[in-house]
């Protein structure tokens, strides 16, 4: 095990003492410097002196995305603007973007956390790292960039997109590590094959993949295609950016949370009560070292579980499961909850299909109707003679529909699509298209 920092193997007492100090500092700063926190604490009759143990965290109010939006752009800052050296923001597809800011210390801590994450994935000083996360207001590009430089990697800041150029640079520079969303790496692999390049023959040995949900089966496909180790990286801008948790390449058994910078909780999103370790719920993070934008009990909307059990790699940090998905992306069909990543698993299991898919949600009468558009693999398409009425196609549709029904309990209409027909992403893939505002007539409405 290549340990980047001794903090990764601290015992519980060391970690708790460090966390309590960070929590007290964070709460004091938020209370005195951020009007939003001052007011909410006052309403609950809490002052920073009430925080005497880590358990006191439970007394603090939750923070949500809308609080950041309501305080757009800079009212959540706990430091004067002259101490801010970087600003990032979410894309803001619905309403105002959420703005996040960093002091010099914040940027240094973040770089250190990301350097540790790259080391966890198997990277080391001297490696060439191809960074295909988007640069700009999105935290992926610059976040991985700073960590890569801090670790001492030769960093290629290619950003997302221009796939032909990505392939040329991978062939010419021979990077050992690639960072991107899982869906974009798949696209790069596919584009390589179209050019007659076998992705397994590149120099890549490690992939650092995240920023969107992906399944274990998708990992298997990517690792097989490129012959590399693919590790999951998690983070969100509101709490910091990539690196809040990172899987170790040795065990690939959950993501190590940067406990020295964040306190994690998992709650039931309906009751807001904590759930037991090992149970799925909504991840909530409190920052312990951030100066510009302290985040207290931030509700991420992401569903995962945590465990305090020690990882076989020897690191002692809390681990979280893969994120199943965001609460907003959960499909609730006749009372059954399913995440797109759970459907993805069954697509990846079938060699006649490629994991390029989209889930369309529509209303048929009063009921939600799910149609899964999924592409067939090129060779299989030829075998079908490009005809989806072919008996082999019908068998495949039936098989996938039945598997999804059996495993997830939801009925899905499967529609095979020809190769290359589903839009490719250069960043986060859009898996769910919610068309439910367009009301479709129910079959019954035709029976008069
Ligand atoms: O996606 C930060 C990031 C960049 C993480 C690069 C990893 C790599 P946001 O754009 O604010 O930040 O989006 C955060 O993306 O709340 C999750 O819903 C989702 N997400 C991030 N990482 C993962 C992951 C970046 N490994 C939102 N698995 C989060 C599943 C993820 N979902």
Textual characterization of the structure:
The chain has helices spanning about 10-35, 35-45, 65-70, 105-120, 140-150, 165-175, 180-195, 215-225, 340-350, 380-385, 390-410, and strands at about 85-90, 100-105, 130, 155, 175-180, 205-210, 230-235, 240-245, 255, 260-265, 280-285, 300-305, 305, 320, 325, 330-335, 335-340, 355-365, 365-375, 415, 430-440. By secondary structure, it is of the alpha/beta class. Helix content is about 30%, strand content about 25%. Helix 7 packs parallel to helix 8. It folds into two domains: about 1-325, ANL, N-terminal domain (Rossmann fold); about 330-435, ANL, C-terminal domain (GMP Synthetase, Chain A, domain 3). The strands form five sheets. It has a nine-stranded mixed β-sheet with strand order 4-3-5-6-7-8-9-14-13. Strands 10-11-12-15 form a four-stranded antiparallel β-sheet. A four-stranded mixed β-sheet has the order 20-19-18-21. The protein is built from eleven helices and 21 strands. The model is unreliable at about 440-448 (pLDDT under 50). Strand 16 (about 330-335) and strand 17 (about 335-340) form a beta hairpin. 5'-O-[hydroxy(phenylacetyl)phosphoryl]adenosine binds near residues 212, 234, 236, 241 and 326. 5'-O-[hydroxy(phenylacetyl)phosphoryl]adenosine binds near residues 139, 211, 232 and 235.
